[in-house]
Amino acid sequence: MKVAIAGGTGFLGRAITSALLDAGHEVVVGSRSRPDRDPIDSRATWVSIDVTAPQTLGALVSGVDALVDAVQFPNSPIENPRKGWTFERIDLGGTRNLVDAAKSAGIPLFIGLSGVGAAEQAPYHWLRFKWQEEQYIADSGVSHVIFRPSWVYGPRDVSLNRFLGFARFLPFVPVIGNGKTRINPLFVGDLAAHVVAALDRSAARGRVFEIGGPDVLTMDDVIRTALRVTKKRRLLLHSPKPVMKLVASLAQFAPGRPLTPDAIDFITMDGVADTAPLRETFGLRLTPLEEGLATYLKR
Ligand SMILES: NC(=O)c1ccc[n+]([C@@H]2O[C@H](COP(=O)([O-])OP(=O)(O)OC[C@H]3O[C@@H](n4cnc5c(N)ncnc54)[C@H](OP(=O)(O)O)[C@@H]3O)[C@@H](O)[C@H]2O)c1
Q1: Is residue 159 part of a domain?
Q2: pLDDT by residue (tens digit) across 187-240?
Q3: Is 70 inside any structural domain?
């Protein structure tokens, strides 16, 4: 099959691109920045797109059998309205434009990446926008499969790897919040394998699947497991959420906007996927955290 992937230069997008190529598919990757400094898999082709500009999407969608949407705004979850980097404009608006482009090009399958917790009345706006993305896809009439990943880890993630980076030179690992956030961490390779499988799994069509790893853990458990895998002993230093939100309320006005109060909520929200329907439909193995980490963390 020929598969297009918007946001194929990102963390999830790159893993999906490689898995598609390994499975023998032809892949067209679309993003704004040409990936010269950090090249994508050389077997894929790259086209320039901007999901906020529908007229740029033609080269991505022409003649493909499926379109995957793996776009999110730069530096997510730290929104920057001045630059137009918001959940509403890029994630929701971008998905709408991609669905419209898929529909006019007659693409037979649209694969969307939502998030665990997406709901009409969710407590956070990013989860309400994810729900609106899902509705837009479902209402478009384009055949589709939607995944709602929990927290995803892998060689290129910017969350766990950032925290582990501190462990290289500090005697402790800083943890935002009380470390009790509950998640079932998903290995990025497992997400990619499910996207590949979704191409020809007719039982998955028209459905939304939560996807997460096999272990439900706290954020402290996740970091301790990563430290064990890398054979490091470090204390976890928790910074209470109210203090971090206060810091973030000031930091949001600093140059480069390093943190926002919403980003603190995003980082500390629970995200446990119910994987029963996914396992029943796809029957693929989900990698335990320790095993997934051991594939790329240096011991
Ligand atoms: N990472 C997770 O743990 C996780 C969990 C649940 C759900 N998800 C969902 O999975 C999707 C991908 O997440 P990710 O972590 O892989 O994101 P990411 O690493 O930040 O990658 C985002 C991709 O989108 C592209 N992009 C940004 N703005 C764009 C624009 N205006 N037009 C076209 N492309 C644009 C980026 O390339 P350029 O900047 O060069 O354009 C990049 O290729 C998102 O929908 C996210 O909500 C992720």
Answers
A1: no
A2: 999 999 999 999 999 999 999 999 999 999 999 999 999 999 999 999 999 999
A3: yes
In a domain, 133, yes or no: yes
**Ligand 1 site, residue 103, Cβ cutoff 6 A:** no
Distance CA 1, CA 297 (A): 33
- 14, 32, 86, 191: which to mutate for ligand 1, most atoms within 8 A of CB? 32
- Full domain range(s) for residue 50: 2-153+186-212+272-286
Percent of the chain with pLDDT over 90: 96
Q: What is the pLDDT of residues 245-299, one digit of tens each?
A: 999 999 999 998 999 999 999 999 999 999 999 999 999 999 999 999 999 997 7
* CATH number of the structural domain spanning residue 61: 3.40.50.720
pLDDT band of 96, cuts 50, 70, 90: very high
Q: Does residue 7 lie within any of the structural domains?
A: yes
**Is any ligand 1 atom within 6 A of the Cβ of residue 282?**
no
What's the gap in Å between 215 CA and the centre of ligand 1? 25
**11 within ligand 1 shell (Cβ under 6 A):** yes
The verdict on the CB of residue 31 being under 6 Å from ligand 1 is yes
Burial group, residue 270, by CB count within 10 angstroms (0-12, 13-18, 19+) = middle
Q: 10 C-alpha vs ligand 1 centroid, how far in Å? A: 5
Number of structural domains found in the chain: 1
